[in-house]
From TrEMBL:
<feature type="binding site">
    <location>
        <position position="76"/>
    </location>
    <ligand>
        <name>Na(+)</name>
    </ligand>
</feature>
<dbReference type="InterPro" id="IPR003691">
    <property type="entry name" value="FluC"/>
</dbReference>
<keyword id="KW-0813">Transport</keyword>
<protein>
    <recommendedName>
        <fullName>Fluoride-specific ion channel FluC</fullName>
    </recommendedName>
</protein>
<feature type="transmembrane region" description="Helical">
    <location>
        <begin position="41"/>
        <end position="62"/>
    </location>
</feature>
<keyword id="KW-0472">Membrane</keyword>
<keyword id="KW-1133">Transmembrane helix</keyword>
<feature type="binding site">
    <location>
        <position position="79"/>
    </location>
    <ligand>
        <name>Na(+)</name>
    </ligand>
</feature>
<keyword id="KW-0406">Ion transport</keyword>
<comment type="function">
    <text>Fluoride-specific ion channel. Important for reducing fluoride concentration in the cell, thus reducing its toxicity.</text>
</comment>
<keyword id="KW-0479">Metal-binding</keyword>
<keyword id="KW-0812">Transmembrane</keyword>
<keyword id="KW-0407">Ion channel</keyword>
<keyword id="KW-0915">Sodium</keyword>
<feature type="transmembrane region" description="Helical">
    <location>
        <begin position="100"/>
        <end position="124"/>
    </location>
</feature>
<comment type="similarity">
    <text>Belongs to the fluoride channel Fluc/FEX (TC 1.A.43) family.</text>
</comment>
<keyword id="KW-1003">Cell membrane</keyword>
Length: 125
């Protein structure tokens, strides 16, 4: 890994984390309830975008360096497995079992589906 690629990954990761913070705040300000809508939207959109990026890279539409910087850097900072896991535990502690199941298992199932859809779209372009 070159120093320039490492710098680009770092900057992209910071930008992704800042984007997640801002988007989550906007979603929280516009929704009510205790279900973590922001984290769900962020993780599913990030899965879709990562799948799209991987599909475009596989189809040789984008160079592999883009997948590293945007995929690992930006989308790695943007998405958040740890927050989704914590929010699932918080829902369980609140005895909101259906919401916890939807959040935990739903995030996995729909995240994989979103990534697969993005990959198919990117590979088709």
């Amino acid at each position: 890994m070159t120093p320039l690629l490492l710098l680009a990954l770092s900057v992209a990761g910071g930008a992704g984390a800042a984007t997640r913070f801002l988007l989550d705040g906007l979603i929280r300000a516009r929704t009510t309830g205790r279900y973590p809508v922001g984290t769900t939207v962020i993780n599913l959109s990030g899965s879709l975008l990562l799948g799209l990026l991987a599909g475009l890279t596989t189809a040789s539409v984008l160079p592999e360096a883009w997948q590293a910087v945007v995929g690992t850097g930006f989308l790695g900072g943007y998405t958040t497995f740890s927050t989704a896991s914590f929010e699932t535990v918080r829902l369980l502690q609140s005895r909101r079992y259906v919401a916890a199941l939807l959040n935990g298992l739903g995030m996995l199932v729909f995240g994989v589906a979103a990534a697969a859809a993005g990959f198919a779209l990117g590979a088709a372009l």
